[in-house]
TrEMBL record:
Pfam families: p450. This is Cytochrome P450. Its cofactor is heme. GO terms for molecular function: heme binding; iron ion binding; monooxygenase activity; oxidoreductase activity, acting on paired donors, with incorporation or reduction of molecular oxygen. It comes from the Eukaryota. It comes from Aspergillus calidoustus. Keywords: Heme, Iron, Metal-binding, Oxidoreductase. Heme binds at residue 427. Belongs to the cytochrome P450 family. InterPro entries: CYP450_monoxygenase_sec-met (IPR053007), Cyt_P450 (IPR001128), Cyt_P450_E_grp-IV (IPR002403), Cyt_P450_sf (IPR036396).
Length: 509
């Protein structure tokens, strides 16, 4: 059933579209336009119901390598061809920057002079968002990454230990959400971490889980009430954090973000609003990715057994004096190829992202596909991630060894793996997130038995309103029973990392 927020979005797009949209004569070089079952509004209803996953559904349905759908205000071109994807990567006139400004306004709620200071320079703004992305990159590699990893891995064992002691039914997705939030934000924001307050954590997830109704920007306190109230609760927490100068005890990432925004002329109130939206990058994909790898391992007992053996042999050490079991994260990276490959295969088959660009000028892609200035291009990961000509005859199958490199097999597939984005816009936090996911998964696999309350691993529904995530966040609970493995009952556990070991050998698009 459509909620009030959904109807408001449809109404806004329809009204504005009929007022502003002009029909242009179609150039024969433009990609074909595909219609919908419901004339005019069909594609809009599809987006409301399925989120960005709707783009993937369309590309699997239609044979064209690139085609357009009409959303009244503009055309959106959907790409399913690796060759066209590579042409997009080579074309500088196709840019991501306007979408950063759009989300800054609609999702973070920043307006006025602060928004203009952040807007991309090509559109007459101050370029603050571009400066912010540039400042973040060096803080997510090298020693700054090592320090964040060290703080984060110290928290993983107590979190899994608490789970091991629970009796009865546990919401596995809810646990992943809380555990990843606690570990990630503590590593980023330091001892005064605002997410320690339940109102901030709950507020952020109410915001994150209901983003879609915020996009029209029309009376969001009414049409996007859950997201709006959640955002304001998280915003209040960040105001207190900056008032206490908590950022000065945070990670290099947090310090660099604050300083860059302050240098751009933003007030602390605007910086606090912007930092709420930072949680989308820090958490929105890591939480569902952690859930899905746990889900997909435990539903395959033979694979689970193999990975337990691999971890025990190659990444686990036992302290001779205390008997403590310590998982070494760098050893997972270097000596557990099956687990690392399985992780990437789960990202390949589970991802439903749709990297997007806008045409800053008219472009002829691959010398034959005309893209008009101002048009939107979206590249759904689903069809490219499953193409036989990219991944081979078993492209539709789950193959945990697909990403293991051998002298006979190079898993690299140009333009085929999009879970971390599409070059040159690649997720800068992918190594931090992967370290965290590997640590959580290793601890759970070695310590816990998990079984769903229904007796089988059923596929939960996706939350189509959580549009910041490309990893299919689920809707509602996923209840399981957890018990400690008999072989390790009473054992103390820990995780460790080491300097210079934070970068994982991951595939990127």
């Amino acid at each position: 059933m459509l909620q009030l927020s959904h109807l408001a979005l449809v109404g806004a797009v329809t009204a504005i579209g009929f007022l502003l949209h002009r029909r242009y004569s179609r150039d024969p070089r433009e990609p074909p336009v595909v219609g919908s079952t419901i004339p005019v509004l069909g594609h809009i209803f599809g987006l409301l119901r399925y989120g960005v996953g709707y783009f993937g559904q369309l590309t699997e349905k239609h044979p064209h390598p690139i085609f357009a759908i009409d959303l009244l205000l503009t055309k959106v071109y959907l790409v399913k061809s690796p060759e066209i994807l590579q042409a997009i990567q080579r074309t500088r006139a196709l840019t991501f920057d306007p979408f950063v400004t759009f989300t800054t306004e609609r999702l973070a709620g920043i307006r006025g002079p602060a928004l203009e200071a952040l807007r991309e320079k090509q559109a007459g703004g101050g370029g603050g968002n571009q400066a912010l992305l540039h400042a973040m990159h060096p803080t997510l590699t090298g020693k700054p990454l090592d320090r964040m990893n060290e703080r984060m891995v110290r928290l993983l064992s107590p979190l899994v230990g608490e789970l091991a002691q629970r009796d009865g039914v546990v919401d596995l997705y809810g646990w992943c959400q809380h555990a990843i939030t606690e570990a990630s934000t503590e590593a980023s924001y330091g001892p005064l971490n605002p997410y320690k307050e339940k109102s901030v954590e709950d507020g952020f997830w109410a915001f994150e889980s209901n983003l879609s109704p915020l996009l029209p920007g029309i009376l969001p306190w009414i049409t996007a009430r859950k997201a709006y109230k959640g955002r304001e609760a998280a915003y209040a927490g960040f105001l207190k954090y900056y008032a206490a100068e908590g950022h000065k005890q945070g990670s290099e990432l947090t310090i660099a973000r604050y300083q860059t925004l302050a240098d751009a002329g933003l007030r602390v109130e605007d910086i606090a609003r912007n930092e709420v939206s930072m949680g989308l990058g820090l958490l929105s994909n890591t939480v569902p990715a952690a859930f899905w790898i746990i889900f997909d391992l435990y539903r395959r007992p033979d694979l689970l057994r193999e990975i337990r053996d691999e971890l025990t042999e190659n990444a686990l050490r036992v302290d001779e004096e205390t008997g403590k079991h310590v998982i070494n994260i760098p050893s997972i990276r270097d000596n557990c190829p099956l687990l690392v490959s399985t992780y990437q295969e789960i990202l390949r088959v589970r991802a439903a992202s749709s990297p997007t660009r806008i045409a800053a000028e008219e472009v002829l892609l691959a010398d034959k596909h005309l893209i008009k200035k101002g048009s939107v291009i979206s590249i759904p990961s689903q069809p490219i991630g499953r193409r036989e000509d990219v991944w081979g005859s078993n492209s539709l199958e789950f193959n945990p060894r697909r990403f293991i490199k051998t002298p006979e097999h190079n898993p690299r597939r140009p333009g085929g793996f999009m879970s971390f984005g599409v070059s040159p816009v690649i997720c800068p936090g992918r190594h931090f997130a992967s370290t965290e996911i590997m640590g959580v998964v290793a601890l759970m696999v070695l310590r816990l038995e998990i079984e769903p309350v229904r007796g089988e691993w059923w596929e939960p529904k996706s939350n189509s309103l959580a549009i910041a995530s490309g990893m299919r966040p689920i809707l509602g609970r996923f209840d399981v029973r957890v018990r400690e493995r008999e072989e390790v009952k009473g054992v103390q556990w820990d995780c460790e990392s080491r300097e210079g070991s934070g970068v994982f050998p991951l595939m990127v698009g």
